[in-house]
Fold this sequence. Notes:
This protein has a 4-stranded mixed beta sheet, with helices on both faces. Strand 4 and strand 5 form a beta hairpin. The longest helix has 13 residues, at about 235-245. The chain folds into 2 domains: about 5-20 and about 230-430, UDP-n-acetylglucosamine1-carboxyvinyl-transferase, Chain (Alpha-beta prism), CATH 3.65.10.10; about 20-230, UDP-n-acetylglucosamine1-carboxyvinyl-transferase, Chain (Alpha-beta prism), CATH 3.65.10.10. The chain has about 425 residues and is α+β, with helices and mostly antiparallel strands. About 30% of the residues lie in helices and about 25% in strands.
Amino acid sequence: MNQYVIRGGNPLAGEVEIAGAKNAALPIISAAIMADQCVTLENLPDVNDVNVLLESIAGIGAHVDRIDRHTVKINGSTIHDCCVEYEYIKKIRASYYLLGALLGKYNSANVPLPGGCNIGSRPIDQHLKGFRALGCDVKIEHGTIMASCDYMRGTSIFLDKVSVGATINIMMAASRAVGRTTIENAAKEPHVVDVANFLNSMGADIRGAGTSRIKINGVTSFHGCSYTIVPDMIEAGTFMMAAAATKGDIIVKNVIPKHLEAISAKLLEIGCEVEEFDASVRVVAARRLQRTHVTTQPYPGFPTDMQPQMTVVLALAQGTSIVTESIFENRFKYVDELARMGANIKVDSHTAIIDGVPSLTSARVSSPDLRAGAALVIAGLSAEGVTVIDDIVYILRGYEDFDGKLRSLGAEIKTVSSEREVEKFRLGGVS
Length: 431
Ligand code: EPZ
């Protein structure tokens, strides 16, 4: 398994280009198979989850032509199977978006039930509630969701929980139902809006995405299109936090500043300078940062996917901060790893009480999940000495060229795959 080795303690400075949003790309790749013509997707992030999902749609017969790292052409006219193999859903939960896509196109879908993951149990009861409300018969047998109907009828669905996945999955299925569907209590994340915009580019009739009420008039077919994926607000936020934790000065480019408002507001609150431009944001952390309280919320609140990175910044801030995780039930597992680097954090159920320390110390730590792994990298970048991050496979699922982008900002970080390379890095510089 590969590791990152980091020699920390240097402020990060410079400009970094943000990639397309993984959490928009995954449902959009799934939805692309709903057209029987060529769909061209641009600004795809070159990350493992996207590459695995492209393999899974090819596995059911879609034609996938990778033009370059960030561009793919997909044609769903050659799909021969509505059954998705377990090997794909085991690798990425988001394969469950194929449920909504296949139901929308063929009124039939067999997709293995996604397991839980390191941040919580991740139920999909709201997804299934929506499909049943649209008239589908949904059974779960032998670990597989089997959904089918003669045709889907538009209806009104009130989600019991604000769910990004359920909102998107139901929107995809309903876009091809007969009649009108309303989704109430819908998620408002930018990637939900991006999926709605993409579906409309193929000929769907969806209004209200980005609000809590989405109205969908079903259509009978989709045509091909070209579409550019929205910038990744979480990748952008991660680099903004890296500036804060290393007393650096970073400009994140190719972003939509409005999507980052909750993150920028918190960084301003704790003493960073934050400057917004048309398509970039600059974060400068010249002095020691101050404590604050953060509670994760559905968009436009503070994103749960930024919770670990924010906790690392507050672990270095003056005073006692409180971070409350209101979305997932088990998203503080990384705190034990942070404690090994000298962080002073007590976790009680959904709340972390953080007594800031002047600096963290380097250590060998393990990445428990995608965003916690990125947070541990930020911790290593702030700490004097050599930090080794194990299990970086999680980080590679959602960050394109993470170490390369950090090196362009002055970080001493390298990907290694042996203890000998770890020792060589400890003894010398970045080779
Ligand atoms: C998406 O997950 C993202 N993943 C997550 O990002 C992100 O943390 C999450 O949205 C919240 O923003 C992708 O887009 C691939 P939810 P999703 O449904 O759709 C409960 C990352 O790091 N719930 O909005 O699975 C659920 O348990 C990942 O990129 C139900 O109870 O999240 C959670 O408590 C991690 N029943 C809450 O809703 C359901 O049927 C929000 O989950 C569905 C969800």
